[in-house]
Structures are given as C-alpha cells and as structure tokens.
Structure to design on (496 residues):
RNA sequence: GGUCGGAUGGCCGAGUGGCUAGGCAGAGGUCUGCAAAACCUCCUACAGCGGUUCGAAUCCGCUUCCGACCUCCA
C-alpha cells in the first residue's frame, strides 16, 4: 500500500506532501521545556502530539533523528530582554544552585513523559551545554552584519534583516504592523529598533548564571539555543521543526531570522505547531492559575476535577482531537474519553489471544470491509496525523474483533490473511503509533486468584445458588473487579 | 486597538462543494438465571443574515460571539 504523507506546514499555511531532504531519513527538532518549574498539562499535550508524529514516522520506516532541547538558561522571566533568567530567579527564591533547579525539574519532566508513554528523543541537548556553539553563532551573525553590540550585549538587527528578508514569514504579519503594535517596554534604550531582540545579554555581577564571551560576562538569549543546537545536530537545513503555537510569532520567527542571518537558509522545511490546551475556554497557563499538574490529574486533587484520571486516559483524550485544534479540558469530555479508551484497550487485550476459527466460505463483503478499516488507519494518519480518524478506524475494527471474540460472528468468514492483518494493524496502531498501553496489567498471581474465585462462583451457579454467585459478583465489583459471563459459559474479569 | 484562528446535534469531536464520521449520553433489541460486557438498530447537527452554484457545514461578504498572539508561557 503506497500512500503519501501530508503535513500541514505553518510556514506556507498549506497541507503539503511530506518529502524528506534525505530519502528514508527525517530530522526533527522540537522546542522542549524550560526547566524552572513543573511541567503542566498543556506542555504535556504538545510533547504527546510530537510523540505521535515521531512514532508514526518510525512506523513508516523512517530513520528519525528527533532532537528536543532542555532550556536551562537564557529564558527570561519577564519582558524585552531586561528580565531575569527564569532558572536563575527560581534558584534565588529557593536558595539553590541553578543546576539543582534544572536537575530537579528535568528529572520530573522525564518521569512525566514516561508516565504518558512518550518515547525519549534521540538527542536532548541543553542550553548550558552549548554555550560555545551559541557564542560562535553570535559571532557569525555579527560578521554577517545582522547584529550589533552595545555595552556587553548583542542585539539582532531586525530592520536591517528585513531589507532583504521577510521577517514575518512565519507569523504572517507585516513589519510595519509589528512596529506599530509592539508595546513600548522599559529598559530597552540600548536597542536600535523596537523589534530587535537579544542574542547575548550582559550579566550583572550578582547574576547566578553567566559565562565569559568576547563581549564580556553574560548569558545567551532564549531564541539562540534552538538555532545553535538544531544546527549542530541536524545541520543548516532539516525536515521538521515543531513546538507549541505560542512559540510561532516570536520564538520561531526569531529563530528563522538567526538561521538565515548566519547560514542563509530557513532551518526547517516543515513547521508544525500544536494548539493550546484550554480550561473553560482560556489557555492553560501558569500565570492564569488554571493549569493542571500531571499528578493532580492522576489523583483528582484539583478544584476543577471531580475525579482522577489515568495517564492513558489523558493521552487518549488528547488523541481524540487533532493536534491543530484547541482542546478544552472538562470532566465530561474526559469521562467520555475514558469509557471509549477502556473499550478499545479491552479489545487490544483480548486480541492478543484471539485465534481464528476454522476457515469457512469467505464473506467477501466482510473481508473487504475489514481491509478497508485497516487501510483507514494509514489513510487517516497520512492526512496530517489525524488521530481522531484513526481512532474511528480502530473502533470499526474493534467491533469485528469483539464479535469474533464473543463468538457473535464466525471468524472463519474472512481469509487467514485478512485475520492476521486485522490483528497486526490493530496492535500496531494501538500500541506503537498511538502509544497507548493496556493499563492495570496485573501480575499472574491476581489472575490465578481470580480464576479460583470464578470457579467457586460457577459452581454455585451450576447448583442454581444465585444468591451466592451474585454475592461474589457484587462483592468483587465493590472492590473494583467486574465479572463478565460469556456465552460459552466462561467468565472474564476486568478491573473497573 | 492590530494580526490570525474558531463557532458542528444534550456533551466531546472529525469533515473543505454532492456519497450526509466516530465517541459519550439517551431509546429499543440480541445474548444472559439476573447482571455486566459485547453486538445490532434508532436519534441526522453544522452561530445568524445575505450571495455564488443545479447543489454549501464546506466558497464569498456582512453581523454576533469566543479564543490566541502582539508581554514570560508548549
């Protein structure tokens, strides 16, 4: 099945066929977190979205180099390049070494990503580990004439850059509009132009994180690290650059300007931006106080939550919307996702041991239908990673799988080839592409125990002692085990 | 204020000109000792007003409402 992958490119505002620079290989850079506090759920959504993209590219057989940075210096606290580095500020507040802050939140971030079953990137470089590369980049931009130094700081000259380049290519804004609408911020006297941004910032003596440079002691501007590190690990040009939509107008715009200034090339061919997670219609952000931390979600300990949800339910909830849409967080929506997820995951669990019946006459229509649903999995993912459509295709397969598992239909009615394809496609997409897991994988002990109880209950049932059998079933249900009697007289159990 | 993007059935959410997703909730049914699960059937919406078209949720215009960015945020 030869199909083409289409990707929505923020740079062109169009869905385009994905053609990697080097056939068979993909270079992908995603802007990672600034590790000065806990990641919140909105951050997680973005990284889960790129995990889906990464997983699908791998599934298609691409050799992917996935670079996602850790910002551990240079990300300023407030505004116009005069604020304090976020990590430094937090370190002062907590009276710790900046690197203690970085270490704590980096570990936390990795844990959370692991809980959400997001694969680690191929390379996870840090800003502080690439100070030399960043200084070299500033030198190149200065040499190219697109930057100027003022009293130990170096600024990017946007107006000069705009003479030959379209500064607003990514954010779609005209230069004059940007100039007219940029608010005047304090402490920017050093800059020649309102839109100029810092490449290197002079550090005050008390600043905790600073490094020697040709311009004196200082630290790098936030936009610089991504240019330096993508250049180093993926080259001047690579395939995909991603991040949250909120990074597009400023961070990515400046990143492109830096790359063009130093290397003459737009770094990435395809720019992919994920949309925001909202709460009650407003962007989830720390400053608005409406953000969730992952553990609050798992435990349900948050004013806006009526219960806790498991990591896979949340991952599934995100997959039910396309990455380019905002997702509004509500209990009702997640409750619905939870039930749907459990249905599909129960199918995945059953599928592992499902054997095909002896072949009978092939029901052509069914056989064809199942193959179409398998095709749909690819078709929908190829359409800009449309995970909601993929879930629909899996749901369609799930109905057949469940019918066969419950002997409502005879699995001998399809060819052995189709049966195997159905199994493989469902498994591949549920686990490998969508990155879902079957939760509550109990130890064998639990199952042995349950089998014993089920046997006792079935003995009671056989003797028509329904009072006892119902007592067992109700008792188990109250502690979280649901028994399901099957047509063949066997009984399954599942956690609820 | 400027720029951009949204508005889909009770709820969530796909869908870019005709073939009228899917999930959750709801109704009915099959199965079952009864349940549960599973399966089957039903429930046919696209903010409002104009326009283009044989035909529009989908294209164009206007209106209303919402959001994002412009200031740190994935």
């Amino acid at each position: 099945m030869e199909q083409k992958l289409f990707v929505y490119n923020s740079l062109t505002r169009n869905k385009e066929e994905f053609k990697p620079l080097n056939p068979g290989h993909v270079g992908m850079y995603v802007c990672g977190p600034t590790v000065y506090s806990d990641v919140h759920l909105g951050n997680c959504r973005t990284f889960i979205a790129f995990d889906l993209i990464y997983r699908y590219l791998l599934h298609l057989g691409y050799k992917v180099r996935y670079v996602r940075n850790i910002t551990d210096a240079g990300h300023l606290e407030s505004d116009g390049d005069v604020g304090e580095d976020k990590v430094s500020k937090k370190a002062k507040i907590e009276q710790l070494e900046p690197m203690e802050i970085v270490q704590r939140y980096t570990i936390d971030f990795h844990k959370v990503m692991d809980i959400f079953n997001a694969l680690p990137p191929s390379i996870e470089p840090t800003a502080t580990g690439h100070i030399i590369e960043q200084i070299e980049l500033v030198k190149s931009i200065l040499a190219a004439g697109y930057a100027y130094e003022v009293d130990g700081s170096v600024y990017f000259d946007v107006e000069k850059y705009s003479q030959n380049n379209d500064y607003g290519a990514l954010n779609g804004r005209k230069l004059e509009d940007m100039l007219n609408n940029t608010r005047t911020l304090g402490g920017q006297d050093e800059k020649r132009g309102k839109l100029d941004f810092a490449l290197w910032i002079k550090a005050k003596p008390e600043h905790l994180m600073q490094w020697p440079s040709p311009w004196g002691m200082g630290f790098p501007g936030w936009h610089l690290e991504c240019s330096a590190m993508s250049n180093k690990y993926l080259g001047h040009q690579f395939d995909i650059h991603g991040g949250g939509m909120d990074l597009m107008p400023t961070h990515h715009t400046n990143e492109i300007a830096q790359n063009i200034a130093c290397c003459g090339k737009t770094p990435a061919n395809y720019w992919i931006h994920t949309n925001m997670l909202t709460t009650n219609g407003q962007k989830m952000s720390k400053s608005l106080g409406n953000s969730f931390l992952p553990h609050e979600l798992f435990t349900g300990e948050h004013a806006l939550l009526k219960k806790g949800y498991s990591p896979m339910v949340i991952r599934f909830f995100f997959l039910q919307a396309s990455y380019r849409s905002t997702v509004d967080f509500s209990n009702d929506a997640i409750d619905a996702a939870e039930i749907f997820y459990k249905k599909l995951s129960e199918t995945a669990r059953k599928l592992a041991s499902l054997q095909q019946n002896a072949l009978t006459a092939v029901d052509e229509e069914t056989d064809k239908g199942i193959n179409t649903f398998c095709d749909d999995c690819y078709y929908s993912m190829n359409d800009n990673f449309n995970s909601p459509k993929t879930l629909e295709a899996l749901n369609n397969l799930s109905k057949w799988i469940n019918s066969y598992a419950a002997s409502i239909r005879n699995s001998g009615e399809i060819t052995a080839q189709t049966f195997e394809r159905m199994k493989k496609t469902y498994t591949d997409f549920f686990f490998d592409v969508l990155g879902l897991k079957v939760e509550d994988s109990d130890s064998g002990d639990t199952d042995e125990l349950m089998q014993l109880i089920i046997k006792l209950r079935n003995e009671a049932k056989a003797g028509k002692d329904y009072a006892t059998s119902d007592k067992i079933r109700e008792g188990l249900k109250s502690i979280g085990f649901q028994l399901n009697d099957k047509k063949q007289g066997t009984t399954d159990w599942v956690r609820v």
